[in-house]
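In the design runs reported in the main text, the only information available to the sequence generator was the tokenized backbone. The following block is the verbatim input for one such run; it is reproduced so that readers can re-run the procedure and compare outputs position by position.
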């Protein structure tokens, strides 16, 4: 009877899907976990997804984004041929797109023979890359001609394949073609290399100023020096379509508004009303803390609503906005929150993450619950100390009347959201089995979840789901859906426990793990289990090689669990087809060396490596020694840009710089342009101090945002960069614009034991930096400061860091600080949650009672922000 009921439920889901998802755009933000549940139900009625026809694929609409790799791999050719275009419009994972790219070759044949009609159908899905695009160029040469003769219609037909265009290709395209192709190019801007994006900006010339709204994120590649060419009129002409500027650009360009509109502290001025603030778009994030705090009080709620809708604020700026919220509400003490309503909270949004427990405690029950739901779903805790979660969770427990022994309900867990990270083991024990199961997927994807909580969740799941089925081996009884939902929480199991999982559950779940992060030990076991039964079958066929679909299923993270033996056993076709996936993975040295050896077996000596090969190999290139590197012919900026993304040892850097000087940029660094430095990037660390001293000042200014975050620079090299920064932004550091501070990056981290050496940023320079300048510094630049130089900041300056900046400080850097500086750093890391070491005590947790079972309604899920269909399906699965 239970089986019949489950089938009946699946039929109801199928009927619902047919009527709901056929409308384009419906449920575009559907969570993947909800989509997985629906697909699972549909398969019970429609059969395995790999058998579905065009009609069914079209009916599922946005659910196409969660189709498993096994289905994409085996969908009938006719189904694919008719649905490629629609599939390409979905927010697919990289592995799904790669799998469809392979199927495109199976369905349409060799890319060298693809027609324009083929491209129009599969251009949005075909596996992009220079190798693929070179095939396309060959196939279309008779009809399209050479790249220099292409029009925007040709570029548009390429779809996602535009990411395979080289810098040389963009150089050949006419200015008008690039202008008319911006709608296609900006769709894929994030997948283009920086050197290619900068080339596009250069091709547009001075016209970029009059088309800011059209070039979208490409504005982030406008050279810093050229920002001075932009006028207020250029920005104002964008209306409500201000492009997405980088933070460093915003810090500079916001001054055009401040100059045009006048004194921001002038309370009689209407220039800073919410309409103009909205038109500033991302540039408003360039306002200093002082600017934000001076915004007019009149209409402040409308202004605040516009400001809090943005998600690109720094932690420090969010704190200022929170103070603005309290000022707007005339709140002067925690007791004033007793009169705040749920409507009042609407304007605050993400800034509510800085509500103190005392403030939450003074709210009415309805208001505090709404505040907790907002904090749990959209609160910004980036870089925050664990106390930030714990203190607000304690307030949430009081608000929800769970600061006792009561169990948590579905509504509680949905409302707490990311505050679950503040729980202790005793709290997890108070989550009933069915509630934990309902929220297992979302809880385990919280990046802030501690290893201790993962361990408790893993053990609870094992005993609740596996033990009743197989008391002797509960791990083996865990179904694939549960293993999939656990995801990162698999780190909570020991290797011995993971080894008891059914291999088939791992094979079923593997492709859903794409993009997840696991501990090295977990990855090793998952990969071994993935191949366990499969290799038994393969040995019967006298083969035990890894296939390219295996690599796609495992993805770039789990692929790091491959053994050297797995790599050595790949056949050539698999290696060639998987090299781009592996080249983007965080591989171990042993894996890199093994793959580098395979690359030499496949392509031969490195003097045969072309730009396409170098780009595809990615991190694998770091597995070659200096003798191998000496054979590279580095003349192509895209190949050099690919190398510039990697980290190298000193001997490799020496040889790479020698090759770059000989083949690409010239032996005299004084002649290098900004484009050279953008491509060379991390390899800049291989330049001598003499080379760095010769950098052309204009070239430095236009590449400072790249040079400023290069890791591994020596003290002497940093000295030269500080000198260059002073040459560009002024010899007195205290007068630098905040935009200059952010762009100069790591050069500001320089202070030397030898303060009399030429041109250094000494302790006087550093101690003169204003609070605004410190607030503007990038966290990823701060972490590159030599510890001894960081120690030259005053305790007051270190205390000015926000949580994300302070959290970037490494243990090695921290060891160079004085006790007063460490205390200031700890306080900065913990923010408003700081408690001195002498008074710190661990928050208490109540004892867990016996577990009970609760029931969830669809309305509960709706209130937590899930879409209607997700709510319905989650409720259905619990029937």
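Verbatim output:
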């Amino acid at each position: 009877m239970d089986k019949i009921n489950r089938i009946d439920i699946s039929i109801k889901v199928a009927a619902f899907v047919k009527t709901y998802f056929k409308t384009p755009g419906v449920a575009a933000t559907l969570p993947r976990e909800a989509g997985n549940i629906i697909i699972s139900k549909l398969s019970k009625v429609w059969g395995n997804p790999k058998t579905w026809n065009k009609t069914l694929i079209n009916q599922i609409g946005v659910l196409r984004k969660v189709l498993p790799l096994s289905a994409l791999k085996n969908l009938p050719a006719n189904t694919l041929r008719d649905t490629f275009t629609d599939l390409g419009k979905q927010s697919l994972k990289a592995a799904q797109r790669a799998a469809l790219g392979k199927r495109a070759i199976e369905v349409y044949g060799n890319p060298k023979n693809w027609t324009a009609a083929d491209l129009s159908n599969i251009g949005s899905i075909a596996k992009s890359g220079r190798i693929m695009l070179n095939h396309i160029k060959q196939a279309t040469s008779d009809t399209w001609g050479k790249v220099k003769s292409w029009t925007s219609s040709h570029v548009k037909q390429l779809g996602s394949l535009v990411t395979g265009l080289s810098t040389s290709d963009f150089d050949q395209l006419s200015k008008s073609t690039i202008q008319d192709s911006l709608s296609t190019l900006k769709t894929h801007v994030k997948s283009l290399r920086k050197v290619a994006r900068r080339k596009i900006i250069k091709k547009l010339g001075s016209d970029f100023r009059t088309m800011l709204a059209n070039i979208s994120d490409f504005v982030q590649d406008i050279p810093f020096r050229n920002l001075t060419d932009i006028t207020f009129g250029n920005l104002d002409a964008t209306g409500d379509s201000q492009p997405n500027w980088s933070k460093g650009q915003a810090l500079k360009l916001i001054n055009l508004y401040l100059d045009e509109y006048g004194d921001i502290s002038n309370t009689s001025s209407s220039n800073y009303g919410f309409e103009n603030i909205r038109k500033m778009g991302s540039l408003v994030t360039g306002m200093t803390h002082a600017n934000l705090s001076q915004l007019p009080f009149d209409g402040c709620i409308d202004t605040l609503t516009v400001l809090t809708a943005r998600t690109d604020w720094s932690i420090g700026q969010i704190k200022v906005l929170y103070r603005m919220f309290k000022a707007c509400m005339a709140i002067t003490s925690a007791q004033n929150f007793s009169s705040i309503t749920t409507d009042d909270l609407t304007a605050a949004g993400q800034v509510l993450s800085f509500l103190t427990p005392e403030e939450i405690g003074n709210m009415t029950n309805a208001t505090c619950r709404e505040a907790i739901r907002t904090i749990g779903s959209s609160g910004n805790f980036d870089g925050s100390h664990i106390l930030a979660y714990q203190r607000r969770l304690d307030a949430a427990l009081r608000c929800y009347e769970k600061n006792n022994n009561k169990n948590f309900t579905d509504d509680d867990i949905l409302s707490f959201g990311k505050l679950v990270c503040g729980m202790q083991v005793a709290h997890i024990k108070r989550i009933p089995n069915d509630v934990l199961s309902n929220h297992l997927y979302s809880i385990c994807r919280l990046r802030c979840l501690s290893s201790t909580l993962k361990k408790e969740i893993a053990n609870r799941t094992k005993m609740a789901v596996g033990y009743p089925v197989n008391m002797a081996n509960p791990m083996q009884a865990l179904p694939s859906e549960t293993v999939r939902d656990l995801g990162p929480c698999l780190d909570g199991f020991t290797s011995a426990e993971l080894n008891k999982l059914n291999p088939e559950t791992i094979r079923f779940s593997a492709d859903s793990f794409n993009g997840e992060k696991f501990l090295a030990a977990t990855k090793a076991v998952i990969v071994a289990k993935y191949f366990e039964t499969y290799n038994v079958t393969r040995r019967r066929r006298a083969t035990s090689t890894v296939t390219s679909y295996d690599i796609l299923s495992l993805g770039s993270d789990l692929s790091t669990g491959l053994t050297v033996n797995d790599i050595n056993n790949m056949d050539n076709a698999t290696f060639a087809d998987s090299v781009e996936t592996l080249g983007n993975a965080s591989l171990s040295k042993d894996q890199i060396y093994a793959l580098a050896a395979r690359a030499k077996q496949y392509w031969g000596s490195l003097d045969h490596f072309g730009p396409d090969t170098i780009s595809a190999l990615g991190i694998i290139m770091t597995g070659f020694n200096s003798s191998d590197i000496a054979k590279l012919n580095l003349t192509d900026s895209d190949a050099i840009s690919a190398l510039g993304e990697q980290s190298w040892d000193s001997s490799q850097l020496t040889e790479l710089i020698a090759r770059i000087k000989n083949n690409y940029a010239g032996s005299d660094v004084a002649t290098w342009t900004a484009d050279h430095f953008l491509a060379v990037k991390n390899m800049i660390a291989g330049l001598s101090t003499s080379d760095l001293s010769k950098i052309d000042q204009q070239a430095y200014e236009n590449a400072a945002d790249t040079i400023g975050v290069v890791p591994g620079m020596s003290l002497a090299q940093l000295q030269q960069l500080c000198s260059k920064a002073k040459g560009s932004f002024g010899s007195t550091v205290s007068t630098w614009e905040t935009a200059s501070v952010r762009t100069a990056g790591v050069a500001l981290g320089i202070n030397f034991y030898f303060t009399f050496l030429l041109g250094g940023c000494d302790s006087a320079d550093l101690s003169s930096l204003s609070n605004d300048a410190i607030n503007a510094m990038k966290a990823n630049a701060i972490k590159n400061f030599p510890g001894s130089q960081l120690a030259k900041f005053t305790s007051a300056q270190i205390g000015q860091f926000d949580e994300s900046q302070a959290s970037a400080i490494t243990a090695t850097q921290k060891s160079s600080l004085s006790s007063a500086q460490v205390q200031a750093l700890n306080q900065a890391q913990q923010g408003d949650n700081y408690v001195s070491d002498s008074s710190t005590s661990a928050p208490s947790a109540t004892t867990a009672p016996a577990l009970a079972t609760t029931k969830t309604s669809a309305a509960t899920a709706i209130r937590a922000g899930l879409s209607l269909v997700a709510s319905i399906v989650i409720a259905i699965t619990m029937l």
